[in-house]
Specification:
single chain; mainly beta; three-stranded antiparallel β-sheet
Length: 302
């Protein structure tokens, strides 16, 4: 146990009857929630005279006393050097960091390939970009017309970010590594010209290091469930010895609206470390997406 955490949130929900007539009825339910986790206290340092701000690192996340839970701690990507084609990152003031434990930018940029493993010294805490959504919720609608019933449920999240390790791994050419299709655009450029969005560097020094280049907005709206049922009239089933009979078809995860470039913005794998995933629940490699499910069945009551 390295400290304490405070979670505070608020939730709002409303249910409505939009239309109610003899043969048709339409009802809706809407809810929205917000939860914020704050790191209240971390284990005191061994040296009682240490005045630096207390922090705890786990993967690409840094816990800071008084800071947001799950805030990313990454070098900030600054694009590509148009002369060399190398990636650039913003420089962190090392003197100030050593004295205070707080990262701040100098305003200069550095060649990431030259930095290599030292790129980790130029990480910034991104309090406004965490794996925790700003808000989330759902919208349900139920329509009934005579014996037909249609249920539709949408679920949404907004403001959460995912570290897309799978995209990083497939963006650096090396032996026995499949590459993303968009890298072909960089190969088509004339000699001496370099893509500002898809740099190419064989066996790159930073191929195994995350930066904000691969930090993706994972907001989404998903059609979680849709179900259509039909209640067989009692006059047709009375001789069968049942009180009700419904035929239905349903589908799950049929549509997802998102700008996330991966397979599924709702799935993460913790970078392969399940213990680390507790503190940094926004890392995804090649985790498979949730499946689309179709069902057909009968509901019988005797």
């Amino acid at each position: 146990n390295v400290g304490s955490l405070r979670n505070r949130g608020v939730e709002f929900s409303i249910n409505t009857i939009n239309v109610s007539s003899k043969n048709f009825r339409w009802t809706s339910g809407f809810n929205i929630s917000r939860n914020k986790g704050t790191v209240v206290q971390l284990t005191p340092p061994v040296n009682a005279d240490d005045t630096k701000i207390k922090t705890f690192n786990t993967g690409d996340v840094r816990m800071t006393e008084g800071g947001a839970f799950g805030a990313y701690h990454l070098p900030i990507w600054a694009g590509v050097d148009p002369t060399t084609g190398n990636e650039l990152v913003y420089e962190v003031d090392q003197v100030y960091l050593q004295e205070t434990g707080i990262s701040r930018l100098t305003g200069s940029v550095l060649d990431a390939e030259v930095l290599g493993g030292d790129i980790g010294r130029h990480r910034m805490i991104l309090e406004d970009k965490t794996a925790v959504p700003d808000f989330f919720g759902g919208l349900s609608n139920t329509f009934t017309y005579k014996g037909l019933t249609l249920d539709v449920l949408f679920y949404y999240q907004y403001g959460n970010y995912v570290m897309y390790n799978g995209q990083r791994a497939q963006s650096y050419p090396r032996e026995q590594q499949s590459l993303r299709a968009n890298l072909a655009n960089a190969l088509d450029l004339p000699a001496g010209e370099f893509s500002q969005t898809t740099p190419l560097s064989y066996e790159s020094e930073i191929s195994g290091i995350n930066t904000t280049r691969f930090l993706r907005d994972a907001s989404f709206i998903r059609l979680r469930n849709i179900r259509l049922g039909y209640d067989i009239p009692t006059s047709l089933i009375s001789r069968l010895g049942v009180s009700s009979l419904q035929v239905y078809v349903s589908g799950q995860n049929l549509l997802t609206f998102t700008k996330f470039p991966g397979w599924d913005p709702e799935v993460f794998d913790g970078g392969g470390d399940q213990q680390r995933a507790n503190a940094s629940p926004g890392s995804i490699g090649y985790a498979l997406p949730q499946v689309k499910t179709f069902l057909m069945g009968l509901n019988i009551r005797f």
